[in-house]
Amino acid sequence: MYSRCGDINSSLATFENLKVKYVVSGTTIIMVLASGNQALQAMRRAYGLKSRAEAYCCLVDILGCGKLVEEAIRVVNQMPLEECDGAVLGDLLGACKLYLLE
Fold first, then answer.
1. Along the chain (102 residues), what's the average pLDDT of each consecutive run of 10 residues?
2. Smallest Cα–Cα separation from 84: which of 59, 62, 49, 48?
């Protein structure tokens, strides 16, 4: 339910607190996290829109919340240098601090 409303943090928290993790609940989390990357790609393909720093910031945050730090790093490494601002790097640093030090 949280993922349908776009509340990724609550979706992940609920998933983490499940005593038994079923395939359906895991698939839902994967779909939520993948949707952010697909949205950026769809904007480029369908509308020819160039992603801006705000879009990358959202994607890095989504990946970080999903503990997909390596994927978030890959996004930052591949994004245009002019769009890599403090917010993007701050989200990446926060994810690294939380999940790479576990």
1. 61 76 67 70 77 84 83 89 90 86 57
2. 59
Contact 63, 95 (CB under 8 A): yes
Q: Is the model's pTM score more than 0.70?
A: no
- Non-local (6+) Cβ contacts of 46 within 8 A are none
Report residue 86 as tokens. Answer: 């403090």
Pairwise CA distance, residues 74 & 26, whole Å: 23
8 Å CB contact between 36 and 55: no
Which tokens belong to 40? 């950026």
Q: CB–CB of 28/3 below 8 Å?
A: yes
* Chain-centroid distance, C-alpha 23: 20
Round to whole Å and give the CA distance between 12 and 27.
12
